[in-house]
Design a protein that fits this description.
28% strand; Ubiquitin-like (UB roll)
Length: 97
């Protein structure tokens, strides 16, 4: 299991391999906006990966295109619904929705 800390709430949760960051948050009572239901149709679940990027899935084309369309583009930006945990370890993200 991975340990994921969601900032600014400083909520630390555990997530299973292949869980999305959104699933890990919601399964553990951490609220992250997700207007499209986690279908990569919006950017409300946007997070910045502060640490642990090597433990996460790479960005795919659909996610990249969605983020480029948004006004939130910053280094480390990912959609929590599309970012999957691939390895055990510590991950820290900042929700910017």
């Amino acid at each position: 299991m991975a340990r994921v800390t969601f900032l600014p709430a400083a909520a630390m949760v555990t997530g299973d391999i292949q869980d999305s960051l959104l699933e890990a948050a919601l399964d553990n009572g951490v609220e992250i906006d997700h207007n499209c239901g986690g279908n990569c149709a919006c950017t409300t679940c946007a997070v910045v990966i502060d640490s642990g990027v090597s433990l996460l899935s790479p960005m795919e084309t659909e996610e990249q295109e969605r983020l480029v369309e948004s006004d939130k583009l910053v280094p480390g930006l990912r959609l929590a619904c599309q970012t999957r945990i691939l390895s055990d370890g510590d991950i820290t993200v900042t929700a910017i929705g």
